[in-house]
Amino acid sequence: MLIITGTYPPRKCGVGDYCQNLLSTTQAKDWKLYTDDNWNITTLFQKIKEIKKYNPEVINIQYPTVGYGKSLLPHLLTIYLTKILKKKVIITLHEYSQLGWKGRLASSIFLKFGNHIIFTTEFERQYAIKKYPRLKNN
What we know:
Blueprint: E1 2-5, H1 14-23, E2 32-35, H2 44-54, E3 58-63, H3 73-84, E4 88-93, H4 101-113, E5 116-119, H5 122-131
Parallel strand pairs: 1-2, 1-3, 3-4, 4-5
């Protein structure tokens, strides 16, 4: 598995800390990490090239992170990875209920194209199900 995140320690972000804790578990001993400081949309094909080098069977995209800023690059990566490269992409949505309408609108791309959605709490999952009932079986 390849975990993609916009922020990872020492940079400050709760999602980065979550990823670091996740990667320190015994279940994650063979997992890899991909992070970068630049999530400008113009780097899309550079990121695809770098991600392909890992040749991952499964990709987990963590969202949102401070490092992504307001970039739609993680969303475009999800579409490309699932539809063009035919990779299994799991999205971990953090604090979905705290996203504004623009963040929820952008997250709908993940909900449509991601193969599986993980919510960090049951509350967040139930909040999303109210907006997207089809997630109940996800």
